[in-house]
Amino acid sequence: MVRILVADDHPIFRDGLRRLLEAEPDLSVVAQAVDAAEAIQLTQQVQPDILLLDVAMPKVSGIEALETLVELPNPPGVILLTAAIDRGDIVKALQLGARGVVLKESATAVLLKAIRVVMEGGYWVGRESVSDLLFALQSLAPLPERAESAARFSLTAREVQIVRLILAAAGNKKIADTLNISEKTVKHHLTNIFEKLGVSNRLELALFAAQHDLLPKQ
Known about the structure:
single chain; alpha/beta; Rossmann fold; Arc Repressor Mutant, subunit A; 7 strands; elongated
């Protein structure tokens, strides 16, 4: 059972969303919040798996609330709900830890699929699952005109191979199998890559690569 917290300042929308979600046998709305502050408080209390968070709320926006939410001991998978959002805010939301962005005008099936994709560890942007995060970010954020060579950051040829596979959504096992190396060696390379680029996880790596046009085109 997926435990969901709904945060939106419109009671009719909240109630309608709860009814839609609870019509699904594997989804349960465990709490509802009327603003960002209550969403943060209830997240700490009920520890939901998924937080459906309205972007446009009074006092503190959903995007601003992300900064606090991602610092909680057991942060939920946050999916932003919005009537409209620009590309810059989508990139910012992903940087702050959001796992998905769903437009309120979307069909119910889209939101349900987004929830399940996020529960499986994926990302959802707009109307589709994101398997190639770098490609998605390149389409959302303009890249600099001049590409920066991977050599500038002292990445070895092997590290460049691993970065490519990460940006294609490959896990450690798939990387190891593809390059015919052990998973332990993959982890060692990842540690070196993160240190060289000043990032701490795969999402930050994807954002860095998008912002710097890091890899040469194939």
